[in-house]
Description:
Blueprint: E1 4-9, E2 27-28, E3 31-32, H1 33-45, E4 49-54, H2 59-62, E5 69-72, H3 77-85, E6 92-97, H4 105-113, E7 120-126, E8 131-133, E9 136-138, E10 144-146, E11 150-153, H5 154-161, H6 170-176, E12 181-185, E13 212-225, E14 229-231, E15 234-236, E16 240-242, H7 250-263, H8 268-271, H9 284-297, E17 300-310, H10 320-331, E18 338-343, H11 349-352, E19 356-367
Parallel strand pairs: 1-4, 1-6, 4-5, 7-12, 17-18
Antiparallel strand pairs: 2-3, 6-11, 7-10, 7-11, 8-9, 13-16, 13-19, 14-15, 17-19
Helix pairs in contact: 5-6, 7-9
The structure holds magnesium ion.
Magnesium ion (MG) binds near residues 219, 221, 244, 250 and 253.
Amino acid sequence: xxxxxxxxxxxxxxxxxxxxxxxxxxxxxxxxxxxxxxxxxxxxxxxxxxxxxxxxxxxxxxxxxxxxxxxxxxxxxxxxxxxxxxxxxxxxxxxxxxxxxxxxxxxxxxxxxxxxxxxxxxxxxxxxxxxxxxxxxxxxxxxxxxxxxxxxxxxxxxxxxxxxxxxxxxxxxxxxxxxxxxxxxxxxxxxxxxxxxxxxxxxxxxxxxxxxxxxxxxxxxxxxxxxxxxxxxxxxxxxxxxxxxxxxxxxxxxxxxxxxxxxxxxxxxxxxxxxxxxxxxxxxxxxxxxxxxxxxxxxxxxxxxxxxxxxxxxxxxxxxxxxxxxxxxxxxxxxxxxxxxxxxxxxxxxxxxxxxxxxxxxxxxxxxxxxxxx
Length: 374
Ligand code: MG
């Protein structure tokens, strides 16, 4: 398909979806949904280029999954499409929403086969229910239920998007320009994934792989006199706290790095730069909450965490239970999945000289099994 580019729209916030995970990040075996769909399209049709339109805060992460062409989307479907269309070099463009993840090859072939016969080719279903408009029944033969992917003449679509009006799909934008729109038979398989109950209707979806991913984190902070000491979000009775840009909760920082590491998302400094004044004196528990929310949004579930706090002083045994309870509350996992160990450094090194504390943490993640909760 050397004269067709596929634009796959995945920039939605999944605000209506009803799960912690965004729909584009539900894992199919070892691939997030957006990648599974893109690969399926590419294996079936070998498009000249596949453009993945994604959210600004997802693009760098997505680029690590494959070498498709990535474009940052806008605030609406149309703004996302307008951003992508600038990168289309072929005569035709097929636009699909990630929500139509099970659109079948046969339907897409019907769309593509008509590309020379209209400015926009649209799959559509006939209405089977009785329909009313306000108080009156209407002739359902006149009703077409529009689906995607739709295939457009690239230049015509570019013109249509310049109009300044907001359209819900390419066909209505092209129709408004007075150009030719052609309907072909749609498919029940192209049912739209809008909320989690739609997952039951999408038989092409596979459950996620059961593999687990491990992350490791380490952090060190030196003591600073007169500051409040916090470890795992718990105030520790101590004449000194930690020298830090944030509240210096060295245990939470190590844990955050372990979580980010397991998800393959870089490190704490990339997510919360210490040059950013927004994080000056920040409560590290709030940073942990942000991280765990992000990890869940990207299709992961936390399995367990373990950490070792190396401290010559203060004595931490009396606080371990409180620390575990705090982490269980923030991470929403059971206490048996949280392990905290504390040890001294036998008076050796900077820890032994009571200059500071270091924490090592590991975390393991698995793919969120959406299949179990529908
Ligand atoms: Mg730190």
